[in-house]
Design a protein that fits this description.
Distance between the termini: 140 Å
Largest sheet: none
Helix content: over 70%
Order of helices and strands: HHH
Structural class: mainly alpha
Number of domains: 1
Number of strands: 0
Number of helices: 3
Length: 162
C-alpha cells in the first residue's frame, strides 16, 4: 500500500511537473507574443506620429502657399489701382496745363499735392510687395485708403475744370 501511495505521489509530482513545464512554455510563448504585440503597437504609434507630423507640415505649407497667393493677388490689384490713378493724374495735369490763368495757377498746387499722395502710395506698394505675412494685410488696407483719397482729390480737381 505504501508502495502504491509512493507511486501515486510520484506520478502526481511528475504530472504536476509536466503541467508546470507546459505552463512555463505557454507563459514564455504568451510573453513573447505580448512583446511582439507591444513592439507592433509601438511601431504603429510611431508611424501614426510620423504621419501626423507630415500632415501638419503639409498643412503649414498649404497655409503659407495660400497666404503667398493672397499677397500676390493683393499686389497685382494694387499695381492696377496705382496705374489707373497715375493715368488719371496725368490726364488731370494735362487739362490743368491747358487752362488759362487764374484757374491754371489755382489748380497747379492741387496737382502737385495729388502727385505727392501718389508717391506715398507707390512707397506703400513697394513695402507691400516684400511685406511679411503679418504685415501685408494692413499695408494693403493702407494702400487702398491712399488710392481712395487720391481718386477723390482727382475727381474734385477735375470738377473744377468744368
Amino acid at each position: 500500500m505504501n508502495h502504491v501511495k509512493h507511486l501515486l505521489a510520484t506520478s502526481l509530482c511528475v504530472g504536476l511537473a509536466f503541467g508546470l513545464t507546459a505552463c512555463g512554455e505557454e507563459a514564455d510563448k504568451a510573453a513573447a507574443k505580448a512583446k511582439e504585440m507591444g513592439n507592433a503597437a509601438a511601431g504603429a504609434a510611431s508611424d501614426a506620429a510620423a504621419a501626423a507630423k507630415k500632415t501638419a507640415t503639409d498643412a503649414g505649407a498649404a497655409v503659407a502657399d495660400k497666404a503667398s497667393e493672397l499677397q500676390a493677388s493683393a499686389v497685382t490689384k494694387a499695381t492696377e489701382m496705382l496705374n489707373s490713378a497715375k493715368t488719371k493724374i496725368d490726364e488731370l495735369a494735362t487739362k490743368v496745363d491747358s487752362q488759362a490763368e487764374p484757374i491754371k495757377s489755382s489748380l497747379k498746387s492741387g496737382v502737385e499735392s495729388v502727385k505727392t499722395q501718389l508717391a506715398g502710395a507707390e512707397k506703400t506698394l513697394t513695402e507691400l510687395k516684400s511685406a511679411a505675412a503679418d504685415k501685408w494685410s494692413s499695408l494693403s488696407t493702407q494702400f487702398t485708403d491712399q488710392i481712395g483719397k487720391i481718386n477723390t482729390t482727382v475727381s474734385d480737381l477735375m470738377s473744377k475744370l468744368k
